[in-house]
Amino acid sequence: NHFLEGLQEWSFIVATITEILPVAFLPNFIIQRKVLRPFRTQTGGTIMAGKLAIDRGWAINVGGGFHHCSSEQGGGFCAYADITLAIKFLFERVEAVSTAMIIDLDAHQGNGHERDFMDDNRVYIMDVFNRYIYPGDGFAKRTENKENIGERRDERRGDCKTTTAAKTVREKQATTPDPFAYCPL
């Protein structure tokens, strides 16, 4: 992948992703050791948490969640697409996993995983974010047009009031047999 090769060779790409421009002037071996190696460890933790959740019923990785990185590009201090990698790992290696749900409650849009799963009907994404701040990725927002299990995330998605939205979801879900049939986020 061109993006991953760039991480190995160019400090400038990492400086852009981390949004710390002086990083561009550091030798690549320092970038690899002090910036990218910890990111890779955290990415491995996300994949491990996915596997442990299947094996033990639950798991968490407090070091992951790089939701601005897609398979094609990094950004917003996210160099590796750990969420995408974990879900794809589970789809490929765990027969019992055929669908996944991403609940993204960060203030910023999770544009990385939205881009990666834009056309994948097996992944439901609930993303609550402030649409007026970074990254403002209109292309990734096209995931809102998906119509399958839990994909009815329309124009109400974004910076809606979560208390009102949660109450509305509870009311609608109580009257429908499909708990994902109504999701305003």
- How many strands appear in the DSSP assignment? 2
* Helical content class: 40-55%
Shape: globular
Rounded to an integer in angstroms, the radius of gyration calculated over CA atoms is 18 Å
Q: What kind of sheet is the major sheet? A: 2 strands, parallel
**Topology as a string of helices (H) and strands (E):** HHHHEHEH
Structural class: mainly alpha
First and last CA, distance: 33 Å
Beta-strand content estimate: 5-15%
Strand order of the largest sheet: 1-2
* Uncertain spans: 145-170, 179-185
List the total number of helices.
Answer: 6
Mean pLDDT: 79
Set down the secondary structure blueprint.
Layout lengths: L1 H8 L1 H8 L9 H29 L25 H12 L6 E5 L6 H6 L6 E5 L34 H13 L11
Parallel strand pairs: 1-2
Helix pairs in contact: 3-4
What would you say about this model in short?
With 185 residues, the chain is mainly alpha-helical. It contains six helices and two strands, in the order ααααβαβα.
Describe the structure.
With 185 residues, the protein is mainly α. The protein contains six helices and two strands, in the order ααααβαβα. The protein has helices at 2-9, 11-18, 28-56, 82-93, 111-116, 162-174; strands at 100-104, 123-127. A two-stranded parallel ribbon has the order 1-2. Strand 1 (100-104), helix 5 and strand 2 (123-127) form a beta-alpha-beta unit. Helix 3 crosses helix 4 (82-93). The longest helix has 29 residues, at 28-56. The radius of gyration is 18 Å and the shape is globular. The two termini are 33 Å apart. Residues 145-170 and 179-185 have low confidence and may be disordered.
